[in-house]
Hints:
By secondary structure, the protein is of the alpha+beta class. The chain has 1 helix and 4 strands. The chain has one helix spanning about 35-50, and strands at about 5, 15, 20-25, 55.
Amino acid sequence: MRSVIIGDGPRRVEIGDDLPLTLIAGPCALESRDMALDVAGALAALGERLKVGVVFKASFDKANRT
């Protein structure tokens, strides 16, 4: 089965049907840099606690909400 690799080094995440769960999460739109860092940090901690890969996603353009 085909897989997709996101990132490199220690932050490398591989996603595929026969691989462990990976969480793709983040806010629909970023309001500030601080918000991005806070949410990304919380998701990274959650991923470490649950032993799953995490990919942070977000949009900085509020027009994408419609």
